[in-house]
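Let's study my pick:
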Amino acid sequence: MEKKLRIMEAARELFAQKGLNGTNSNEIAGRAGVSIGTFYNYFRNKKTLFLEILKQYLENFIAGIYQLQSNDAVPLKDNIKSHINKAFAAFDLHPAFHREALVLKFSDRDVKQLFDDVEQKQLVLISSLLKPYSRPGSERDLQVAAKVIHSAVENVGHYVTFLDSHMQREHLVEELTEMIYHYVNNL
């Protein structure tokens, strides 16, 4: 298991530096300090390895953000800001790898499927967090509201993390918090 983890860590670093297509299995094995045969004992090919790393990364991403609890003692605005900060912190874990995965999301069906699956899980979680704030009998579709909120946080998070934003992160977090707060109050 230790060798498999070393291979995954070495591969994540190389994929972040050189991309999936710019990295080969021999480089990964070399960086991990294992033989190429050991590499192939654990992974069919580098894409299979990439997908396993991405799946683990995205699961950790969700776990890091959505350790949320409804607590009436915490004001809604503070709760929203906390969630936004958790999302941005998750983007900060491995930004170069995340950027490479995002690029592949638009060109590789398997990568897109992993992102889509994770997004569906996120929408369910966000919907459940919104439910206590929606008015009884409201016709609002919480899945749609969750998508709007998810998209806003993701877009600003990507801007801050991956696009060398000239705007201050904290100011963007404050404005995004304010926007979502008013949106949620009108559910």
Notes: The longest helix spans residues 109-130. The CA atoms of residues 47 and 164 lie 28 Å apart.
